[in-house]
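Researcher: Here's a chain I'd like modeled. Treat it as a single chain, no partners, no ligands.
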Amino acid sequence: MHYLWLRDDSEYVRAFENIQNDALEDEAARRAFAGSDTLLIFLLKSRRPERFKDKTQVEFTTDLSKPSPAQVEDVLTQLCAMRERKVAEMEREKALPPPGATVVETSVEASS
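Model: Modeled as a single isolated chain. Structure tokens:
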């Protein structure tokens, strides 16, 4: 019957999982007096993360509406470099003949 209830009854499933988690916590307490068990730590963290997760708090504040002078300088440097690359690219394109054009080389001899 147990497997049918697990398959068909969501309230039974929740109650069964709670009983399993309670038993796991009881075992953790029992083992705490006997020694350390790393596997048990991982089981507890995965089963009840709200109680056993590693607690980390990170705070970060910045005013993005007012960039620092260093940030402004960095952006200006990047923009200038992009402009220089684009100007150089345009100058190279001007020096090349248009695609499909026939290039004729001529030489002029100096008269003496």
